[in-house]
Amino acid sequence: MVIKNIITAVKNIYFGPTVTRMCPEVATKLSDRFRGLQKLDKDKCIGCGICANTCPNNAIKIIRARINPESDKQRWFPAIDVGHCLFCGLCIDQCPKEALSNSKVYLTGIIRWNHEDLLFTPDMLAREVDINAEDEAGEEVSRWTPQ
Q: What is the DSSP letter of 68?
């Protein structure tokens, strides 16, 4: 029995199908229900805070942020601590204006070494700034500490 298993293993090393893939070079095929990094539509968001009240991990805070990168006007928007986020989708389900949505982003811009870099500002959630830029986790988010 042991010899038979060893022969099968050796055959599969050279002639068997590939069973592993190199991540992140080869992307994983995602299902339609996959919940990746949230995406914020600033035009729809009313800053009501229901998403922050619904979050079981208190990963969402409502902060004042610019309406768009060129404007000086500010409104209330959610900022998400992705390091504490469960990706449960409750914030998205409870949003009355459907301003938050799921995206398929789960590797690009999310893998960071420091927890402070996982605090996503409204600009980052709206993809108005590059989420790969580590310096973009701005001053707005650095003022609050996750629970």
A: S
Contact 95, 80 (CB under 8 A): no
Q: Token pair for residue 136?
A: 């973009």
The more confident residue out of 97 and 141 is: 97
Rounded CA separation 36/145 (Å): 23
Letter string b/e over residues 93-130, b meaning 16 or more CB atoms within 10 A of that residue's CB: eebeeebbeeeeebeebbeeeeeebbbbbbbbbbebbe
pLDDT at 42: 94
pLDDT tens digits, one per residue of 58-88: 999 999 999 988 889 999 999 999 999 999 9
Q: Position 133: which residue type?
A: A
- At 129 the pLDDT is 82
What is the sign of the dihedral through the CA atoms of 114, 118, 119 and 123? Answer: positive
Is 65 in contact with 77 (CB distance < 8 Å)?
A: yes
CB atoms within 10 A of CB 45: 22
Q: What are phi and psi of 74, to 5 degrees?
A: -125, 150
